[in-house]
Design brief:
- With about 500 residues, the chain is an alpha+beta fold.
- It folds into two domains: about 270 residues, tricorn interacting facor f3 domain (Immunoglobulin-like), CATH 2.60.40.1730; about 110 residues, Neutral Protease, domain 2 (Orthogonal Bundle), CATH 1.10.390.
- Helices cover about 25% and strands about 30% of the residues.
- The chain has eight helices and 26 strands.
- The strands form six sheets. It has an eight-stranded mixed β-sheet with strand order 6-5-9-3-2-15-18-17, covered by helices on one side. Strands 1-23-24-22-21-20 form a six-stranded mixed β-sheet, covered by helices on one side.
- The radius of gyration is 22 Å and the shape is globular.
- It starts with a strand and ends in a 5-residue tail after the last helix.
- The structure holds zinc ion.
Length: about 500
């Protein structure tokens, strides 16, 4: 993300009917299943689209290619409630038996006015709570207990799950969407649904990488997975989501059901909006789409064109963009200039005003798009090593501005005494310090490395980083190992100064 000190956004939709591509048994089966689920409780029926299978990687849990989320969502716009059922399939690949599972329930950080990370100006109608609650959870067919602990929810299994065994978790949940201009919230006609669903946390040999509430940063760490999502919304609304829309079916109750599929997705995010316009363009095999409110076609066209240019630049430098579509949506959001999700970014709608952040808008766009590589494809623990994705997103954006736009890079991007890139979010006590560490510190590390090794070698480091850790989670140590390998010289001294030993 790119944080902002203050501010905010929103779009007309060229009512375009999706061709009924898959008006076949798949859709009928899914709709029947949806009806059953909303009338009764689970079991959540199988969606016809299945995750690809391959051998498990011992030690990585959840293993990306063994994990699928099948979600059924129904948005109640009168009460701002999203009703969800999740069928999560994975396998115990951690190498040991498992007697608990931990989930991130991000909306729970918005429950109370004194602990919400959203800035006050985002509550346009006064404080309004958001939350995510589990109603029922079953693990491998057995009803189990669960315990809400802030933004994390612990699920106890009825009996230990042996290493190598399949795991099937069924969750009936609901999320209250606050009236809030934020990455999770709504302004009544636009629903920004980032991190809205229960997401399985990552288990390493050192334990669970659970999330915690932080007023700054993106407190997330997830493995990629396969998603098949059925979304039911009033038909006056439209939607934008991670992945690709397989079908849209008009129901006889004034609602539409979309079937959406996403492969190798780090997260699944969603925007449901009224009266937006969609424009799109095919650029080197990727369909780039832009969604905006109001009469802002000129700015949106420019953003669409630039987005394609930026995607092509990163693809040529680091490695190809892996999805069929990339989407940019302008939304009412305070506290961030932009927010990255898999295959989709949110930008605050203020961008649509001519002259908004004239010096910074291209940088912000390039930063958010760079997260498709650094966060999306190569994952990292954004709580414990936020410098990894934020530093690289900043450096990548500057390289784009310099090499394609011919812009000058700001001076002073170099090591300064006291920098410590190894700080985790909970050891950082202000957003200024966070920005100084993850963003300024992170980009300076890369500019410094370019001075040491030259640009060609740094690009080789990054190509290898992507190739080795695509659809995985990389750590600082992993990256340092690659730098040492590719440098052809001793890098200990250089690395040491950015990561001073802990007292
Ligand atoms: Zn960022």
């Amino acid at each position: 993300m790119v944080k902002s000190s203050n501010n905010n956004y929103g779009c007309e939709f060229v009512q375009k009917r999706y061709t009924y591509l898959f008006m076949s048994l798949i859709v009928i089966a899914v709709l029947c299943a949806t009806a059953i689920v909303y009338k009764k409780q689970p079991p959540v029926p199988a969606v016809a689209l299945l995750a690809p299978q391959s051998p498990a990687v011992a030690g990585i849990f959840p293993a990306p290619d063994k994990t699928s989320y099948q979600m059924r969502l129904r948005l109640d716009v009168s009460n701002n409630i999203l009703y969800g059922t999740t069928l999560l399939k994975t396998q115990n690949t951690c190498g040991n038996k498992l007697d608990e599972l931990w989930f991130t329930a991000y909306p729970n950080c918005l429950q109370k006015s004194d602990t919400t990370p959203a800035p006050q100006e985002a509550y346009f109608a006064g404080f309004n709570p958001g939350w995510l609650r589990f109603n029922h959870v079953k693990v491998n067919g057995q009803e189990v207990q669960f315990f809400e602990k802030g933004v994390s929810i612990q699920v106890k299994t009825a009996s230990a799950i042996a290493a190598g065994d399949d795991i099937q978790v069924e969750i009936i949940w609901q999320a209250k969407i606050p009236r809030l201009k934020y990455r999770f919230g709504s302004n009544n006609t636009v629903y920004m649904l980032g991190n809205f669903y229960p997401a399985l946390n990552v288990l390493t040999k050192d334990g669970w990488l659970n999330s915690y509430n932080s007023v700054f940063g993106d407190p997330f760490c997830f493995q990629t997975a396969y998603y098949a999502v059925s979304l039911n919304i009033p038909n006056a609304y439209n939607m934008v989501a991670t992945g690709r829309t397989v079908s849209r079916t008009t129901e006889d109750d004034g609602r539409d059901t979309y079937l959406i599929e996403a492969r190798d997705a780090r997260d699944f995010s969603l925007l449901v909006m009224y009266d937006y316009t969609e424009i799109k363009q095919e650029i080197k095999g990727v369909t780039v789409k832009c969604y905006f409110p109001g009469q802002h076609t000129e700015v949106a066209q420019k953003v669409l064109r630039k987005s394609g240019q930026i995607l092509s630049y990163y693809a040529s430098r680091f490695g190809s963009y892996p999805y069929e579509e990339f989407k940019v949506a302008f939304v009412p959001m305070q506290g961030f200039h932009g927010m990255e999700y898999c295959g989709l970014i949110f930008l605050r709608e203020d961008f649509l005003q001519q002259g908004y952040e004239p010096e910074r808008s291209e940088f912000i766009l390039a930063h958010e798009i760079a997260h498709q590589w650094w966060y999306g494809m190569v994952g990292n623990d954004q709580l414990r090593e936020p410098w990894l994705d934020e530093g690289l997103a900043n450096w990548s954006a500057y390289k784009y501005l310099q090499e394609i736009e011919g812009k000058q890079i700001p001076s002073g991007l170099e090591y300064r005494n006291g920098m410590d890139l190894g700080k985790e979010m909970r050891d950082i006590f202000s957003s200024q310090e966070y920005y100084r560490t993850a963003y300024t510190g992170g980009e300076s590390f890369w500019f410094g490395l370019e001075k040491e090794l030259g640009n060609d070698r740094v690009i080789k480091v990054l190509r290898r980083y992507l190739a080795d850790y695509k659809n995985k989670i990389a750590t600082t140590q992993d990256l340092m190992d690659i730098i040492k390998m590719e440098a052809g010289q001793d890098m200990s001294e250089y690395i040491y100064k950015w990561f001073p030993p802990k007292p």
